[in-house]
Write a structure and sequence with these properties.
The protein is built from three helices and twelve strands; from the N terminus they run αββββββββββαβαβ. With 203 residues, the protein is mainly beta. Strands 2, 4, 5, 6, 9, 10 and 11 form a seven-stranded mixed β-sheet that branches. A hairpin with a 6-residue loop joins strand 9 and strand 10. It starts with 6 loop residues before the first helix and ends with a strand.
Length: 203
């Protein structure tokens, strides 16, 4: 994914203040396996953009931090069943982004691939649906905050682009961001065929 927009622009877009400006991430290419502090907005404080949550969720019951490599994404269809997420459906967040990337496989094994960059067709800054939690390191007692991006089945456009797994992150419509943060809203309402406008380019 990418979060390439400057702090002030992001604050204006979400009508929220960045918690720690010195930690605000601006990057054209954020690799999930770097487990970076991507700016997010928690349901508990929608007027604050927090900068101390790592991409790659570590459940509270996890024995070690390595678990995060398994939870960059959360499938919306199985959220209420998976041990990693079923207790977190009420802990929702907005993951701030300017675009995300997916690969189109040109052959059955993905030896030849084309990379696509996907933008919102509604706004140059958007939010993806996320879940968050905190984990206490049993060895040090340190608190580690983390989140996962919620995904759904691909729409027609993304079926072509992400033709291997046919998934996509839930790119929220601007008018639905607060509804996602409301834990009383039905999480299933955000599964496909829910979708927002998107524009894709091969890069």
């Amino acid at each position: 994914m990418a979060q390439a927009q400057p702090l002030k622009k992001v604050e204006k877009r979400f009508k929220a203040k960045v918690q720690k400006p010195e930690d605000f991430l601006v990057s054209e290419n954020i690799n999930g396996f770097d487990f970076l502090n991507v700016p997010i907005i928690l349901d508990s404080s929608p007027d604050i953009i927090t900068t101390n949550y790592h991409w790659g969720l570590v459940p509270s019951w996890s024995k070690d931090i390595d678990f995060r490599k398994n939870t960059l994404n959360a499938r919306i269809e199985t959220i209420s069943e998976k041990p990693s997420f079923k207790s977190l459906t009420h802990q929702r967040c907005l993951v701030i982004a300017s675009s995300f990337f997916e690969w189109h496989w040109n052959d059955a094994k993905g030896k030849s691939k084309d990379k696509y960059q996907i933008f919102s067709g509604e706004d140059e800054i958007f939010a993806m649906a996320g879940l968050y939690t905190s984990w206490t390191n049993p060895s040090t007692g340190d608190l580690y905050n983390s989140f996962s991006i919620v995904t759904t089945a691909a729409n027609k456009q993304m079926e072509y682009i992400h033709n291997h797994k046919k998934r996509m992150p839930i790119m929220l419509k601007k008018g639905d961001e607060m509804a996602w943060l409301d834990s009383k809203s039905n999480i299933d309402e955000f599964a496909f065929p829910y979708e927002s406008s998107m524009v894709a380019f091969r890069v």
